[in-house]
Structures are given as C-alpha cells and as structure tokens.
C-alpha cells in the first residue's frame, strides 16, 4: 500500500517561512498530479497548490506570490515553500498524490497523507 508522509509543519510568526515536504513510499509505478490541501478549524478543506507531472502549477488566489510548490520525482517527494505566512494560513496541511499503481490496464489511485499542522501567530 502507498503511504504519504508530511513533515515540516510548526509554529511561526506572521511573516515567517516554512517548507513542507511529503514523501511517497510503497509500490509506485508513477506519480501524476501532486498537491497540497489545507483545512482550518471549522472550515472545509481547500486546495492550496498543485503540480502536474510536467511541472505546471496552480495556486489558490490566497497564496499566489507567497507559496511555491515543487517536486523531486527521483525521491517521490513534493514540497511546499511557504513565505510571508499570515495567521489565516493556520491549518492542517495535507499532501495529495495521484499515483500509478498498475500499468496494464492503467490504474491511478488518489492518496492522502495524515497532515501536518502549521500555526502562524500574529
């Protein structure tokens, strides 16, 4: 079974930075889109950023210009560099990946990490 493990969360002051990492392990034949989601207390989960296998990216309007998503395919790892953090960024951040688990017939499954907490103090 594939597992995604996030790391890098913590407590920072507003204006500070954090770098999140998510490493996938298990039987992985390929990884398509990878992304970061977050969920604040009392709110719905929302997409923060995603990156395709080809390297194209998309960001939520609230994080554009502050966050950068990247990936290292050799390590099956996706990163989220978060700069100029704001209190409203406080949330549990979840890693998501579309992972190819079978080639013939092609099968891709959606996997989630357990999350890492980011707290931004004002």
Q: Overview of this structure, please?
A:
The structure is a single chain. The protein is mainly beta and about 120 residues long. About 0% of the residues lie in helices and about 60% in strands. It contains no helices and 11 strands. The chain has strands spanning about 5, 10-15, 20-25, 30-40, 45-50, 55-60, 65-70, 75-80, 90-100, 105-110, 115-120. The strands form 2 sheets. Strands 2, 4, 5, 6, 9, 10 and 11 form a 7-stranded mixed beta sheet that branches. The protein has a 4-stranded antiparallel beta sheet with strand order 1-3-8-7, with no helix packed on it. A hairpin with a 5-residue loop joins strand 5 and strand 6. The chain is elongated, with a radius of gyration of 14 Å. It starts with a strand and ends with a strand. The model has no long low-confidence stretch (mean pLDDT about 95).
Architecture blueprint of SSEs:
Blueprint: E1 3-7, E2 10-13, E3 18-25, E4 30-39, E5 46-51, E6 57-59, E7 67-72, E8 77-82, E9 91-102, E10 107-112, E11 116-121
Parallel strand pairs: 2-11
Antiparallel strand pairs: 1-3, 3-8, 4-5, 4-9, 5-6, 7-8, 9-10, 9-11
Summarize the structure.
The chain is an all-beta fold and 122 residues long.
What descriptive keywords fit this protein?
59% strand; 4-stranded antiparallel beta sheet; single chain; 7-stranded mixed beta sheet; 0% helix; 122 residues; mainly beta
Instruction: Determine the strand fraction and express it as a percent band.
Output: over 45%
Shape category: elongated
Low-confidence stretches: none
Largest beta-sheet characterization? 7 strands, mixed
């Amino acid at each position: 079974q594939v597992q995604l493990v996030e790391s890098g969360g913590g407590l920072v002051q507003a204006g500070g930075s954090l770098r999140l990492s998510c490493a996938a392990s298990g039987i992985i034949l390929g990884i398509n889109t990878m992304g970061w989601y977050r969920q604040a207390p009392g709110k719905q989960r929302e997409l923060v950023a995603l990156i395709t296998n080809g390297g194209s990216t998309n960001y939520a309007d609230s994080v554009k210009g502050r966050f950068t998503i990247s990936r290292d395919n050799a390590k099956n790892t996706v990163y989220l560099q978060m700069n100029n953090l704001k209190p409203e960024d406080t949330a549990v951040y979840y890693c998501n990946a579309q992972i190819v688990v079978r080639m013939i017939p092609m099968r891709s499954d959606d996997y989630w990490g357990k999350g890492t907490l980011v707290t931004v103090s004002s």
